[in-house]
Write a structure and sequence with these properties.
One of its GO terms (molecular function) is RNA binding. InterPro entries: CAF1_poly(A)_ribonucleases, RNase_CAF1, RNaseH-like_sf, RNaseH_sf. This is CAF1 domain-containing protein. The protein is of the alpha+beta class. The chain has three domains: 307 residues, Nucleotidyltransferase, domain 5 (2-Layer Sandwich); 137 residues, no CATH class; 161 residues, RRM (RNA recognition motif) domain (Alpha-Beta Plaits, 2-Layer Sandwich), CATH 3.30.70.330. 41% of the residues lie in helices and 17% in strands. The protein is built from 26 helices and 23 strands. Strands 2, 3, 4, 5, 6, 7, 13, 14, 15 and 16 form a ten-stranded mixed β-sheet that branches. Helix 16 crosses helix 18 and helix 20 packs across helix 25. The longest helix has 27 residues. The chain is flat.
Length: 718
């Protein structure tokens, strides 16, 4: 059996992370050879602005991120809307976590949550669009930002981990994704929660501990037993420090001018000024010797303070600083405390990295445009805000707080017959929509001389280069996909009757009445056509769902039984036949394989769920000849078959564990029972036996034959 995917686990000290697929297919600290070797062999480039097939695109890495961010702030503030797109290292951590028609909305959210928590975002496309009334066209500024979760702060904690799904990685490699640039030059980030934790850590370090801790030194104690060499060294250092201090005092009392750079012959000591105070630089000592020096200054010199500071090139420097009074010493300690706090804050601010872009989009409250972007916003929330909420309702409420104006172009396309007609009922994928609605833009320079329906004009500007003539860009590169998304949105608005020429500068596109019915609606599940409103949390199955080719009749979750662990040779048809022999030919509506180890069985009546579970539990408990020859015995063969209602499926999906096979997942979650009844009502043994006898052989309508079979079974049992 092949699922078309292998998952690689890659723990990060600085590089990538985690993955799994079929226990015997797990690889550690290796990229998928077939897909990544080609990509990693490409030459490493660091150009600031690049062209992909002559399409102007701003490539952003950590080497030019600070400059690009300053420019992006201006562009976003001036934009009418901002289109985004993400590239990830995978989508599903196991085949059974894929999106199914049988997924209820809360289960669908749990699967999206699992995906966002396990996979990494490696590229983020941001494309501000601004209407230029002088040229009657939009000016697009596509940015292709490489992102990588590198640890930038020296804070204790687990290293970053993420999954890599080989089908996704091969897909990226196919479209020339540069893994070298991503890993080496990708912009790192901190979520808001991680920033808060770092600030709390800094506060505890700089507000509650001593100066020594502020300078990254532990409070030391007397060494209980020192060697003779240690004793001699401490005495020598005591003498040296005393001599140095007395020399300073004599110079001050005698009115002599202090000179920097008074060195000894071995260059082991050097006198400098540090924060307007004389200080002795301590060079070429071992860490143990420095600890002894710290002990000496602490015990014998009230007016000397031992500190460790970061010098040039991040090299630490050990100093013994002279303070001429207790007040001066307190002042010096405060100065050091403030300096270390400011330095730590600067490091944290720098470590925020790419999240500055997300904060910009949130604070400016611009209209954000994506394409089928529910998963995208789950990634945005998890990576840049904090842990994902446990329910879909909490999630959409939080997203709406940070991004109050969102348009999904897939919603927009499917909600308008006008747009569907323009697309000639073709696929509503991003590339299809772009080709159908924006042919002049999609073809670029190749469109000259061809006849097209007039469409919204778009020019592209990168740095100081502005162009309206280019070859088509590289699809599935986040910056270009964001550009395509924005173009589809602009053209859709035009077809819906929005005239950008009449739009006043003070008017917000998000407030346009023609967009209100689609504003803040996202597909919770594209396979079922279920839509969720970010503003209210309400869910609807829009008429758009009729455009989807459904394989199954209306799904009633209270009518569904989850069955797993049955013999692997059984297929959906055989499982249906087993159950139909007992409950009747029309009792089962459909049987849906989750994977080779589990199925959903939807009954026509909700009562059949409890009847099936009760019967299964009785057959397994009795294990008598009647049970052995019962039609369900084929399903129960092997003794590992489990069954429960749909709620157990939700429970299993909510687990952070992710095994490849559903049966293994259920076991890993800790499910030991074989049958979970819908109601905790104990059925009388007499009633169970009566029901069991009634369904021994529903293929025969003759009660006499049933009695004969019972007699034969009892006789065989003797």
């Amino acid at each position: 059996m092949s699922f078309g995917s292998v998952y690689l686990f890659i723990p990060l000290q600085n590089p990538p992370n985690k993955a799994t697929h079929a226990e015997n297919h797990i690889m550690t600290k290796k990229w998928p050879v077939s897909s990544l070797s080609r990509a990693l062999s490409r030459a490493y480039t660091t150009t600031t602005a690049t062209t992909t097939a002559s399409f102007p695109l701003k490539k952003v890495t950590r080497s030019n991120f600070e400059t690009a961010l300053k420019e992006l702030k201006k562009l976003v503030r001036a934009a009418d809307f901002v289109a985004i797109d993400l590239e990830m290292t995978g989508v599903t951590s196991a085949p059974w976590r894929e999106s199914f028609e049988f997924d209820r909305y809360d289960v669908r959210y749990l699967k999206v949550k699992d995906s966002a928590e396990r996979f990494a975002v490696v590229q983020f496309g941001v494309c501000p669009f601004r209407w230029d009334p002088l040229k009657d066209s939009f000016i697009a500024h596509p940015h292709n930002i490489f992102v990588f979760p590198r640890r930038e702060l020296p804070i204790d904690g687990p290293s970053y981990e993420f999954l890599c799904q080989t089908t996704s990685m091969d897909f990226l490699a196919k479209y020339q994704f540069d893994f070298n640039v991503c890993i080496s030059e990708g912009v790192s980030y901190l979520s808001r929660k991680q920033e808060d934790e770092a600030l709390r850590h800094m506060k505890s370090l700089h507000d509650e501990e001593s100066l020594h801790s502020l300078c990254y030194l532990k409070e030391i104690r007397d060494i209980p037993s020192m060697s003779m060499a240690d004793i001699l060294f401490t005495e020598r250092m005591k003498s040296k420090l005393s001599e140095w201090r007395e020399g300073l005092v004599r110079n001050v009392k005698g009115g002599a001018q202090f000179h920097e750079g008074l060195n000894d012959s071995k260059q082991q000591y050097q006198t400098i000024f540090f924060k307007m105070r004389p200080a002795l630089v301590l060079k070429e000592f071992t860490s143990h010797q420095l600890r002894l020096i710290q002990l000496v200054t602490k015990k014998h010199f009230n007016n000397l303070v031992y500190v460790r500071v970061n010098g040039e090139n991040s090299c630490s420097q050990q100093l013994a600083v002279y303070t001429d009074s207790e007040e001066d010493k307190d002042l010096f300690m405060k100065e050091m405390k403030d300096e270390n706090r400011r330095a730590a804050e600067m490091r944290i601010t720098a470590a925020i990295g790419f999240r500055h872009v997300i904060d910009l989009l949130s604070s400016e409250q611009k209209l954000i445009v994506g394409h089928n972007c529910f998963l995208d916003f789950a990634h945005v929330y998890h990576k840049f805000f904090g842990p994902l909420p446990s329910t879909a309702e909490e999630f959409v409420s939080s997203v709406n707080k940070y991004f109050p104006h969102i348009i999904d172009t897939k919603i927009l396309l499917n909600a308008s017959n006008c747009l569907l007609q323009r697309m000639k009922k073709s696929s509503t994928s991003l590339s299809s929509a772009f080709s159908s609605l924006c042919p002049q833009i999609a073809l670029g320079s190749k469109s000259s001389g061809l006849a097209f329906t007039p469409c919204v004009k778009v020019e592209v500007q990168v740095d100081n280069m502005r162009s309206s003539n280019w070859n088509s860009g590289s699809k599935h590169e986040a910056g270009y996909d964001a550009f395509m998304t924005g173009c589809v949105f602009a053209q859709s608005c035009s077809y819906l009757g929005i005239d950008f020429k009449l739009q006043l500068p003070s008017e917000k596109l998000a407030d346009n009445e023609k967009l209100q019915k689609q504003l803040n609606l996202l597909y919770l599940s594209w396979s079922s056509g279920e839509i969720i409103d970010l503003g209210t949390g309400d869910r609807t199955a829009e008429s758009v769902s009729c455009n989807l080719k459904k394989r199954y009749p209306k799904i009633l979750f209270e009518n569904i039984v989850l069955v797993w662990g049955f013999p692997s040779k059984l297929k959906a048809r055989e499982i249906r036949e087993c159950i139909s022999k007992v409950f009747g030919a029309t009792a089962v509506v459909s049987v849906y394989h989750i994977d080779e180890t589990a199925v959903f069985v939807q009954f026509h009546e909700a009562e059949s769920v409890s009847d099936f579970l009760s019967l299964k539990e009785t057959l397994e408990r009795k294990n008598d000849p009647i049970s052995v020859f019962h039609p369900l015995s084929k399903l129960l063969e092997g003794g590992n078959t489990h069954a429960a209602s749909y709620e157990t499926y939700k429970e299993i999906c909510s687990s952070p564990i992710s095994k490849v096979l559903f049966a293994d997942q259920a076991e890993a979650v800790g499910i030991k029972w074989k049958t979970k009844l819908v109601e905790s009502v104990v059925v009388e043994t007499k009633e169970q036996e009566s029901f069991l006898g009634a369904v021994v052989d529903t293929e025969s309508d003759c009660a006499e034959e049933t009695k004969t079979m019972d007699s034969l079974l009892r006789l065989w049992c003797r």
